[in-house]
Each structure stands twice: as structure tokens, then as C-alpha cells.
Amino acid sequence: MPRHPFLDDLRATLIAVAIGAIGALLGWLLHFPLFILTGPALVVSVVGIIGPELRIAPVFRDAAFLVLGIGIGAGVTPQAGQLLLDLPLAALGILVMLVAIIWLSRWLLVRAFSFDRRSAVLAGSPGHLSYVLGLGLSFDLDTTRITVVQTVRLLALTFLVPLAALAMGITVDAGVLIAGASMAWHHLLLVAGIALVASLVLKRLNIPAPFLLGGLFTSSATHVMDLTPGALPPGLAWPAFLVLGTLIGSRFTTITPRELGQSLMAGLGSTLIALICAGVAAVVIAPLIDVPLIHVLVAFAPGGLETMIATGAVLGANPGFVAACHVLRLFILTILVPMMLGKAAQRPNASRS
């Protein structure tokens, strides 16, 4: 019998999510911070490295992101929207932070791990993975090393940001998204329909994470106008977070143990630099805009866009502010990385910064 692509995608997704669910259970038993994300990310990444390929089909990934966006947007209030006025100052902090991360990561990767200068710029870039890999391919660089370093950063920050919150005395695993009465189903269908259209438009415009942002922006608007009051039902929120955690771990599925071992320390070193720079920037900016430090940290932390926005929602941060900061980060990187890559190319044979 001929194989049906949709059934193959469904089977692969169910296998990956089932393994992710085991990770979530282990995370809960071991008291992982934000276990619904960190548990699946860890277990799926380990299985993906030593076992079969694990993947989430795009249609299920996009559906989960749409649901997450709607749930996160439900936490936006008219008062929270005022925080967006602080974006110019936050943007300046993000720009300085990104320059510092790329420069310091390049220095570390060249000096300690024998990266060439251009590969070090791309491996140390805090985000925009597909764009970074495209640049790497255009220069015929070793994209495998770049991918491993970037993937280690994404997984490490998924754990480190919640741990930073725990260190500040904030509980991050008591629940996901906002508490309160669930949205009525007719309201949920209304916001989902509008969000789907908005997401497809954003996708057409090549906006990053279009389904997450489409759901977030639409839900934010309808909640501010009180058209769709209430929170996302837990029966939708938990599976969406589980898919996100599984997706994070599945990034390791094409990386061999040998490749991971060769670049693991490089990835952890650049991740530590990124977290320190984000922490310093957050410490400087938070009091200037009168926002809790952990909220600014999750808005500045250069992890995966979807992961950091979801983590911010769990921590009670303003979703609009967190999302805007991460979109700004990707926009700035679009311009900044080629500039720093060009500067590095002026000394292609240099072994030191």
C-alpha cells in the first residue's frame, strides 16, 4: 500500500510527543523547573542523539504555537500595554548586549576552540538560527559545528532561565499561562479563527514564529477590548507546552554523539557568555524601566523565541513586552551579523580576535 505523508507525519509526531511526555513525567518527579518544557527537551534530546530521528511535523508544530500564542495573549491587559512605551530604552540595551555577546563569543571560539573568525561570528550569534546557517552555507563554512553550538545554547537557556528565576525565589512550575476562568468555547473559536488568518499573513511576510505571534497579537487585542475574556483551557495549554518542549529536544536528532562531543564545550562557553551579557543588560535596564529583573532577563535572554516568550508567560511577565524584545533581537541580528561577518572576513586567516 502507498504511504500517506500525513499519516507518516502523524505517526512521527505521536512517537516524539510520547517520548516528550515521559520526559515531562520525569521532570515532574524530579522537580525540574518548568518541567513541562525542560523534561521533554532533555529526554528527547538524549533519545535523538543515541536513537532514531524524532520530529514534530510542521502542521502540528504550527498548531501548538497558535494555541500557545492565544494563551499567552490572554494575559495582556490595557495596563500591561503601557510597558511597551519602554521599548526604545530596551532596544538600546538589546543592541549593546548583542554586540557584546557576538564579540566575546567570537573571541572565545577562536582562541579556545580553533574556530575561524567567520564561523565564530555565526556560532556566537545569539539567535536567528536559520538565517545564520544560510549565511554559513553561502560562505561554505562548517555549518555542523555552528549548528551544534547554536543548539546547545537553545537547550541550555531553556534550563538556565527558569533556574535563574528559582534563584530569585520565583516558583516557575506551579502552572502554565494565566490562572482564572477558562475562555468560553465560542470566544476561543472566534480568536482562533482570527489568529489563524493573522498568522498566515505574518508567514507570508516572512515574520519569525508567525503562528505564535499571530496568536499572541490577536488574543492580546481581543482581550484588551474584552471581546474574548478568560484564560486558555488547561486541556489545550498543557499539550501545547509539551509539543514545544519536545520540539526543543528534537533539534539534537540529526547531531551525532561525536559531533556533540567536539562542540559541546564551545556551545556551553558561548551560552555562558550570552547569559552573563543578558544578565548584566537586564540589571542595568530593569530599574530604569521599573520592571522586575527576572522579567527583563527573560525578555533579553537569547534563547528560542517561542521558548522565551512561553517562559515569560509562566513567570508573569508582560507578554507584549517580552515578544517585542525578542522580535527586536532578531531584527537587530539581521543587520548586525552580516556587518560583523564582513569585519571578520577582512582578516580571514587570523587565528585571534
Account of the protein in words:
Mean pLDDT is 84; it is low at 349-353. The protein has helices spanning 5-29, 35-50, 58-73, 78-81, 87-113, 117-124, 129-138, 143-167, 185-204, 210-224, 234-250, 257-289, 293-300, 305-314, 319-345. By secondary structure, the protein is mainly alpha-helical. The protein is globular and about 60 Å long. The longest helix has 33 residues, at 257-289. It has one domain (5-345): Na+/H+ antiporter like fold. It is 74% helix and 0% strand. It has 15 helices and no strands. Helix 12 (257-289) crosses helix 13.
Q: Estimate what percentage of residues fall within beta strands.
A: under 5%
- Shape type: globular
CATH class: Mainly Alpha
Give the count of structural domains: 1
Number of strands: 0
User: What CATH architecture would you give?
Assistant: Up-down Bundle
What key phrases describe this protein's structure?
15 helices; 0% strand; 353 residues; globular; mainly alpha
Quick structural overview:
By secondary structure, the chain is mainly alpha-helical.
